[in-house]
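anyone seen this seq b4? input:
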Amino acid sequence: MPPQFDILTLFPPLFDSPFSSSILSRAVSKRLIDVRIHDIRSFSTDKHRTVDDVAYGGGPGMVMKPEPIVAAIEATQISGKKVRRIYFSPQGRPLNQKHLKDYLAYDQLILLCGRYEGVDERVIENFIDEEVSIGDYILTGGEFAAMVFVDAVSRLVPGVVGKEESLLDESFAPANPLLEYPQYTRPPDFRGSKVPDILLSGDHQKIEIWRREQSLLRTQKKRPDLLKK
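predicted toks r here
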């Protein structure tokens, strides 16, 4: 059974493009992953389809109400399956390459996308298993974090990426915690900038050594914090 992503959002049209093109589109069409979008507003019970309200205690902005969110979670969650309910928040655990494979252990991933000033805390306390952050910055909504999450996790599903061995050399891959070495293609000389001779030599052993050196140098220059780890 392919991993199922159920995305709860106030803005379903935002997902039309990301999941209808490129690798994710092919993965969906081949049934390697299952992505379902759910409009939280459809779970509101009043005639105005209200999903937010002012915050107790005052303050700027609106807060997403618990009733439609919880109704959406309960209607979406598959009984008897291994489910992980995730809320995207800057307060959550930073999304990291080494953690991504953990999510493949679940049959269903329910992804809650917050808006405005966030969601009622009682939702997080009682109906969310984990808060996840994609970085120390603020987005206009959790939809963009959900797109990143689905893309990053899906790439680890067998068959989604054409040559799975290519995943081993990528930056942050478990087998290679360094940044990836530089890549080149034709032409060998572009406006006076040439491809390193070693890559044209055909000596695969020397090429592997060069790539390892370049990974170390690139990591030292761009992300020295990774070397400390």
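The mean pLDDT is 93. Helices lie at 22-29, 66-76, 97-100, 121-127, 142-154, 204-222, 224-228. kinda curious what u guys think
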